[in-house]
Amino acid sequence: MKTQIFALVVLVALLSACAPAPAETEAAAVENTPTASSTPAPTDTPTATPTPTMDLQATQQAEEAARKAEEAAFIADVVAPDLELAGVSADEGELIYRMDSPMEISAPEADTFYWEYLNNADFALKNYVFTVDVSWDSTGFAGCNIVLRGARDFDWDSQEMMMFRTLRLSGAPAWDMIIIKNGRIQSTVAESTNGAIEVESGDVNHLVFVVKGPNALAYANGYRLGLGTAKATMTEGHVYLTVISYTGSSSCTYSNGWVWELPEEGN
Q: pTM score, two decimals?
């Protein structure tokens, strides 16, 4: 009897071990199973179009070469003939200034005087050649005058200056070089009437100056006018372009100007 009961217990235990798992276990197994998800299709990423890399150095070199070629042509065609007229070799000195555009200066009524710096007073000049075309439009006695030696800050009443004057007189074109101090003419260092100067309103005069130390040599339209000598101490200064009207009104237009710097004496 005991043997039968023990066999029955063993059978029951075996049957229990072989029984299926509870339902909640199956549910948990289902929940822990990863759910398959769809993988996004790859998209096309635009590729930037490569741009050509400019060779900055090569560009700058090309621009500099073009500038030098243009300047060389300007010196050969425009500067050299005036240097030759003035007895100056193009091998002496260098071109340091060119006017960008014409400069018109007006004196709208009698007894008025107006001026402008040649080069915005950026630098003083010692020995130099200066060329400029000057046209005047005047209703009376007037002049287009150029200060060849002047102070940095223009002051008619207090400074000393050397001035070249072209005077539009009826039938008698005249010029002179004067020393002005404290607003008054101290001396006239050169003067003359000269048929080389065109006097009709609207005429253009091509002027060339060779300034060395206190000496200034003037040319007009290819002809030598004369030499003026200032005080020995006047060896450096600024250039002004001016207009003066003694009667009526007047305007002077300065154009095509350039400056050729000469080496100092002994260099």
A: 0.75
